[in-house]
Amino acid sequence: MDLSVGTELPPFVRETRMENWNRFAAVMDEFVPHHMDDDDGRKSGMQGAFGMGNLQSSYMHNLIRDWMGEKGCIRNFSIQWQQPNLKNTIVTARGRITAVEDTAQGKQVSLELWTEDNNDRRLAIGTAKVLFSA
Amino acid sequence: MDGLNAMSETGETVTNISEEMRQAIGRLLSTRTSYPISASDIRKWAIAVYFPESPPERFVGAGGPDAPLTAPEEFNPFAWAAPGKKPKKPDVSAAFLENQLGITPPPLNTVLNGGTVVEYGVPMREGDVITATNRLDNYTEKQGKRGLLMFSSMKDEWTNQRGEMVKRTTSTVIRL
C-alpha cells in the first residue's frame, strides 16, 4: 500500500435514490419527511427529497475501510455537510493522504475526504486519521 | 433578557445568548443505554450503507460468541428501540436544544448542521451494551454574511459495558 502524501484513495461510488435512502432510514430510524417525499423536500427549499447527511458520513467511512482493509484503524473522523445529496445522482466519496507520521503505536495517516456528485457539486468535506499498527 | 436579543446602541444584535443559556453550558442533555447489539443489527447496517454491493464479510458473517461481529465504526446502536425510549416525533425545530433543557430558546428560526468531529476508541461488537452521555458543550457566536450566527456544540460520549470509551462525538449546529 502506498502511504505517501498526495496518494488518492480508490473512490467509493454509489448511484443514490430512494432505494439507498430507504435502507438507511430503516437502520437509522431516520424517516424524516424531507428525505422521503419530494413535496416535503421542496418545502425545505430543495428540488425534491434529498439524502441523509449521515449516509454521506457512512460513504466516507466505506471509502476509508475499503482502502485500509483490516490492517488499519480509524482513530478520528470529522465531516461538514455543504450541499444536499439530490435524488438520482451519482455520489463519489474521495480521499487523499495529507500527512504520515510515525508514532509509538504505528504509522498514523491523515486524510482529507470529500463527497461529490456527478454535477460537480461538493456535498461534504471531512478529515480522518488512520492508524496502521506497527 | 431571556428569550430576547441584546441590542447595541446602534440597534445591532450583539448577542442572542441569554444568561439562562450560559448557565446551561455543561448540563446533561440525555443519557441512553442500548439493548445488546445483535449480529442482525450489524448485518443490516452494513447491508444498508454498502447497498447495492455486498459489505465486507467481517460485517455479515455468522457471528456468535466465538467470533462476534464487529460493527462499522459509525454504527448507531440507539436507532429505533432502547430501554425506556418511547416513540416520539423528533424535534427538528431551531429550539430543539433549549426544549431539551427546559429553558427559553434564542429568537432564531433557522438551524443548520455545522458538522461533527469524532474520536474513536474500542470498536463496538456483537453483544456490547453502549451507554451514551450527551451534554451541552458550548454556545458561541460570530458575525456572518447573513447576520449574527450562533454555534451550539454538544458532546456525546459512548462507553461499553466494560467502561471502555467507544467514541466521543462533538456535534455543532448553526442557528441564524
Describe this structure in words.
The complex is a heterodimer of chains A (134) and B (176). In chain A, strands 1-3-4-5-2 form a five-stranded antiparallel beta sheet. Chain A is built from four helices and five strands, in the order βααααββββ. Chain A has one domain: Hotdog Thioesterase (Thiol Ester Dehydrase, Chain A, Roll). With 134 residues, chain A is an alpha+beta fold. With 176 residues, chain B is an alpha+beta fold. Chain B folds into two domains: 123 residues, Thiol Ester Dehydrase, Chain A (Roll); 39 residues, no CATH class. Chain B is 16% helix and 34% strand. Chain B is built from four helices and seven strands, in the order E-E-H-E-H-H-H-E-E-E-E. In chain B, the strands form two sheets. Chain B has a five-stranded antiparallel beta sheet with strand order 3-5-6-7-4. In chain B, strands 1-2 form a two-stranded antiparallel ribbon. Chain B is elongated and about 70 Å long. Chain B starts with 5 loop residues before the first strand and ends with a strand.
